[in-house]
Amino acid sequence: METWIGQDAMRSLIGVVVPAYFSAKPSDELVAHLLKMTLGECVGYVRPENTWVVVDGDARTERLVGQLRETQWSEHGATFNVIALPENRGKFWAIKEGITALLHNSSEVSYIVIRDGDGDHDIAEVPSLTRAALHLCETYGHTRVIVLGSDARRYASRLYAALHEADALGVDEIWVLGLGGLGDDPIWGALRERLGRASR
After folding, report:
1. Of 74, 39, 41, residue with least CA distance to 53
2. Percent of the chain beyond pLDDT 90?
3. What is the pLDDT of residues 140-151, one digit of tens each?
4. Which alpha helices (DSSP H) does the chain contain, by range?
5. Band of the pLDDT at 132, cuts 50, 70, 90?
6. In which element (H, E) is residue 17 found?
7. Residue 129 above 70 pLDDT?
8. Rounded to whole angstroms, how far apart are CA atoms 30 and 154?
9. Contact 109, 57 (CB under 8 A)
């Protein structure tokens, strides 16, 4: 019988890593707003101590993240964690550092959400994506599962990134499920074709 995770129980099992880097172009006000929106929305889905923001070598973003952290602490008595990297080594490096810190400090976490600092991912998808990951783990007996949302353009870029990362890790098997009935967007067709070539 399939396990069902309720929202309250899920909050303890989920960790969030937010790689944060902003160019000099957006104003401080815009960056602060995007960070507040991104991190504020996480509170309903994950415990604050299981949220890690990784600032990728950007002093301005580090300052704004620090201000937001202090505000959350004064308003809620709890806040997210921050890692300030000394230099920008790319998004994957920031994600790796965040995941390492999250897993080292949070033994209960079973599911990790990667969310960009500009709030472009819908946090409301987290429960259904987490339940999908649990279903795949139970059905196929694998505990290392990556679940991506259904937006074609975002899915494509994240899938290619996940495949690249899996290849770098020397993964023996990669299973891609659920590309059958995803609509007529040409991106889905290109994805199917690319995956078909990779599986040969």
Report:
1. 39
2. 33
3. 887 777 776 666
4. 7-13, 28-42, 59-76, 91-105, 126-140, 152-168, 186-198
5. confident
6. strand 14-20
7. yes
8. 23
9. no
* Residue with tokens 């308003």, as numbered in its chain: 75
Q: What is the DSSP string of 57-91?
A: S-HHHHHHHHHHHHHHHHHHS---EEEEESS---H
Nearest Cα residue to 49 out of 69, 79, 82, 24: 79
User: How sure is the predictor about 40, in pLDDT bands with cuts at 50, 70 and 90?
Assistant: confident
Could you give the CA distance from residue 129 to residue 69 in angstroms, rounded to a whole number?
Answer: 27
At residue 139, the 3 state secondary structure works out as: helix
Residue 124 CB-half CA count within 13 A: 0
CATH topology classification for 7-121: Spore Coat Polysaccharide Biosynthesis Protein SpsA; Chain A (3.90.550)
- Global pTM? 0.77
Tokens, residue 138: 């139970």
Per the prediction, the chain carries an average pLDDT of 82
Question: Would the pLDDT of 38 be above 60?
Answer: yes
Give the domain ranges of the chain: 7-121
Contact 147, 133 (CB under 8 A): yes
